[in-house]
Amino acid sequence: MSCDGDSVSITAATLPSLEDVVLGNIPGLPKVHLHNKVLHHSLGGEEFLRPFRQALDDELGAPFVLVIEGSIPNENINGEGYWTSFGNDPATGEPLTINWWIDRLAPKAWAVVAAGTCAAYGGIHAMAGNPTGCMGLADYLGWDFRSAGGIPIVNVPGCPVQPDNFMETVTWLLYQAAGLAPMIPLDEQLRPTWLFGKTVHEGCDRAGYYEQGDFALDYNSPKCQVKIGCWGPVVNCNVTKRGWMDGIGGCPNVGGICIGCTMPGFPDKFMPFMDQPPGGTVSSSFTQAYGAMIRRLRSITNRTVNKEPRWRHNRGELTTGYNPRWPR
Ligand code: SF4
Ligand code: SF4
Ligand code: SF4
């Protein structure tokens, strides 16, 4: 269950770019062949499906990494139909569900990666009331799943995934496959630790305003947006540091509140969007009281350091405090 947003997002990666990985421009990486329906020249059909069928039959001739985009529906509650399809069964002509493919390919894959929040935790499609019973890959395969390479599911959340976060993760896995990197470090939510260890707030360009209790009251302001719905202080995401594409953008940095799109609790636990987060009312009240005083003191110091020292003048005497050893 996907909008293809993650595939589109990944085409913007630069660290490294998809093209550099596929063209073999990164020293030490194994040769990579990419099979993605959005990026494949045939846009589907048997030619596109061939490597997937070969992987099923152990005829691919090389290890593969299975990347899932979008959430996984519950086909146990599909009634007489099916929620997804990915090619047909050649024998019966019946559609093959994405669950059918995951059941067979995941145990054979050297590594299994969930790209985007839908694949990682269920995301938008799995919000309360979802009729398809959607879930993330770890809820589907089990949180203790291990791939053929002995690796847990690797979650790279984001809606969509930040392109360089995804490519950096895949690059680590490829180096690991080549024996040039240790086991990829993951946190309890199976996210790469070096990408999701900090909060949005810790990297935000507006954090100085927060610390001084200086808050935006509408979306035209360059100040901290916690009072108009930003969840940044409690959300694990690095886009305020890394930007969206090639260092550009990054939600709160450029005026968008953080709605927690990388988080396992997204979207339900962050709704209604644009209301002040509950904890934010308490913390911003404290910061506002202390920040008002700090701002006043800082403005006094700021005026002081905005003036040059008095001894810089063109008068007849030296007033710098210089103490000559010998009289002139
Ligand atoms: Fe689309 Fe977001 Fe889901 Fe990716 S995580 S498939 S971008 S809705
Ligand atoms: Fe923190 Fe959001 Fe304010 Fe940035 S805009 S400083 S992330 S609360
Ligand atoms: Fe999603 Fe918030 Fe990160 Fe923006 S800053 S990408 S809304 S988690």
Could you explain how this protein is built, in words?
By secondary structure, the chain is mainly α. It has two domains: about 5-195, 3-Layer(aba) Sandwich (Rossmann fold); about 200-270, Cytochrome-c3 Hydrogenase, Chain A, domain 2 (Irregular). The chain is about 30% helix and about 5% strand. It contains eleven helices and three strands; from the N terminus they run H-H-H-E-H-E-H-H-E-H-H-H-H-H. The protein has helices at about 5-10, 20, 45-55, 100-105, 115-120, 135-140, 165-175, 195, 205-210, 240, 280-305, and strands at about 65-70, 110-115, 155. It has a three-stranded parallel β-sheet with strand order 1-2-3. It is elongated, with a radius of gyration of 26 Å. The termini are far apart. The mean pLDDT is about 95. The site of one iron/sulfur cluster has 13 residues, from helix 1 and helix 5.
